[in-house]
């Protein structure tokens, strides 16, 4: 004990002296002082005491109706490892089962019987149980540590009942029935239900492996114990040796005829404020929001691709800003979700082409900052873009243009979807179809900041460029309306976001 105190004093002195010297003699800019620092609470997924949460969304990122006996579709598995090597769980199964009508600390009266508001507040509550606010390393105790909460498993069904009146149109309330030419999947009343959720809280096995999972199905009447034929299924299982290596997150996603459009991602979301796709406070893992100078590192092994409709996102980045470049403030009529995704399924073609400029962004910017217009057929890299769509509330769009789906987000959205192509090589992204796909597991180090700062995103003329801050960074797949049952399976590890 005495020795420990002595060491602590020593650390204190060394740190203070160093800080003193640092402050007096070197005026290093903030960005350079933080070179190589992680933006995440758990850099590289190495922390034994895991923090992971689960969220399920309907087509427009809401809840609408909770699934029977499941509670609100938010849950978490967060624990610390005690000195005697037991896992001390911070979230109980009764916390995970909380649903409308059940009170918890901090719940507002208006949310008590509102499934959408309840889920938002439950996420904040789970975040408060899981929050890590101090560094676990004694020698780092002088560093300002920013609180962080959890990795987020996000599950979403694209089923959309145009007669149910559950989703706004570009953020505006829209009475049912909606008259749209878009062909949304829906088997009939109740097609936008929430899934079942089974949870195995993380256990420490005799061989020193820690293991746990979330799984379930959208087919509420099915018994997943009797095999998965004809039913939808999702699972995320995590595993790590205590004291060694890193967490590996093993994902499975299966569509069915009734649920042909499903998404499953592992997200690093902002620890406060809005993350990609929400007009309200969320909790997450990104304690510092990356802007232009950052890299994203992770290891990805894809075992099953999920069929030709599976838009497997090597990386998906999300944020929010207004068309005038100002940051989002929760006003769903003017806030716009911005997404960009690198799709690595080699079956997904470029819809953008010299004869389909409607699917291309107005221009491309090269790594040396040369702008190439999409009608410059000799130079525009058509094969690098799967699809571009513009926000439905943009007023000064350049024709021809395709507008993004106005329903599948609580506000208008803009999406830039990329495909492997030599022009992305400079940023460490795949340059050829098939790279990183089945049979080619890789560890990627992506210059996401460099690429994202050169992507086209719409802005009103003569407005100051938006400060692009990425509030969600994730990996996973969107099986975009399969015509038969499809299955995807992959594992993800080593995830980090490094500020340069
Ligand atoms: C291990 O430690 C925790 C608290 O640190 C305590 O609650 C638990 O009973 C201990 N378990 C054993 C087996 O000693
Ligand atoms: C739905 O839209 C189509 C084409 O835009 C139009 O012809 C039709 O009259 C509309 N139906 C209703 C009920 O508004
Ligand atoms: C899903 O979770 C349940 C309950 O934890 C478990 O029994 C089952 O093996 C898991 N996987 C499948 C495919 O059902
Ligand atoms: C799945 O559906 C097919 C076609 O409807 C049917 O022939 C088959 O028996 C079903 N399988 C199970 C296990 O229910
Ligand atoms: C920028 O790169 C392109 C090829 O990508 C090249 O043709 C062009 O000359 C370069 N421009 C400058 C200013 O270096
Ligand atoms: C290409 O598009 C720009 C507008 O983006 C236009 O000014 C120019 O005339 C077009 N060039 C050709 C050859 O069509």
From TrEMBL:
InterPro entries: DUF7705. Residues 1-23 form the signal peptide. It comes from the Eukaryota. The keyword Oxidoreductase does not apply. Residues 37-499 form the DUF7705 domain. Keywords: Signal. Pfam families: DUF7705. This is DUF7705 domain-containing protein. It comes from Gossypium hirsutum (Upland cotton).
């Amino acid at each position: 004990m005495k020795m420990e105190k002595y060491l602590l004093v020593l650390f204190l002195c060394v740190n203070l002296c160093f800080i003193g010297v640092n402050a007096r003699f070197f005026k290093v800019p903030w960005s350079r002082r933080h070179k190589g620092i992680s933006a995440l609470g758990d850099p590289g997924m190495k922390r034994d005491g895991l923090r992971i949460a689960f969220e399920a969304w309907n087509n427009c990122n809401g809840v609408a109706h909770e699934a029977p006996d499941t509670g609100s579709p938010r849950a978490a598995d967060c624990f610390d490892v005690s000195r005697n090597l037991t896992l001390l769980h911070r979230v109980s199964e009764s916390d995970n089962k909380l649903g409308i009508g059940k009170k918890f600390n901090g719940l507002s009266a208006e949310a008590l019987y509102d499934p959408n508001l309840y889920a938002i507040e439950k996420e904040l509550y789970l975040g408060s149980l899981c929050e890590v606010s101090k560094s676990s390393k004694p020698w780092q105790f002088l560093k300002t540590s920013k609180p962080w909460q959890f990795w987020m498993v996000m599950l979403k069904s694209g089923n959309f009942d145009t007669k149910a009146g559950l989703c706004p149109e570009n953020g505006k309330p829209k009475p049912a029935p909606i008259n749209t030419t878009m062909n949304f999947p829906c088997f009939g009343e109740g097609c936008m239900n929430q899934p079942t959720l089974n949870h195995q809280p993380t256990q420490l096995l005799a061989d020193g492996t820690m293991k746990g999972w979330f799984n379930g199905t959208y087919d509420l009447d099915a018994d997943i114990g009797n095999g998965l034929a004809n039913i939808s299924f999702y699972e995320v299982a995590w595993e790590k040796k205590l004291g060694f290596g890193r967490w590996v997150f093993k994902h499975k996603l299966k569509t069915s005829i009734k649920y042909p459009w499903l998404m499953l991602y592992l997200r690093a979301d902002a620890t406060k404020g809005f993350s990609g796709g929400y007009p309200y406070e969320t909790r997450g893992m990104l304690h510092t929001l990356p802007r232009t100078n950052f890299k994203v590192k992770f290891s990805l092994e894809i075992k099953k691709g999920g069929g030709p409709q599976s838009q497997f996102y090597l990386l998906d980045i999300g944020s929010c800003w207004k068309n005038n470049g100002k940051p989002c403030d929760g006003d769903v009529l003017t806030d716009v979700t911005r997404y960009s995704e690198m799709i690595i399924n080699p079956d997904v073609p470029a819809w953008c082409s010299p004869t389909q400029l409607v699917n291309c962004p107005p221009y491309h910017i090269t790594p040396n900052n040369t702008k190439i217009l999409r009608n410059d057929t000799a130079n525009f890299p058509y094969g690098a873009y799967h699809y571009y769509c513009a926000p439905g509330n943009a007023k000064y769009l350049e024709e021809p243009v395709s507008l993004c789906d106005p329903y599948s987000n609580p506000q208008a959205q803009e999406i830039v979807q990329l495909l492997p192509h030599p022009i992305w090589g400079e940023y460490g992204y795949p340059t050829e179809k098939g790279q990183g796909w089945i049979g080619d597991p890789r560890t990627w180090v992506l210059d996401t900041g460099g690429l994202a700062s050169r992507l086209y995103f719409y802005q009103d003329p003569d407005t100051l460029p938006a400060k692009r801050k990425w509030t969600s960074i994730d990996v996973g797949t969107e099986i975009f309306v399969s015509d038969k049952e499809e299955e995807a399976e992959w594992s993800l590890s080593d995830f980090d976001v490094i500020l340069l």
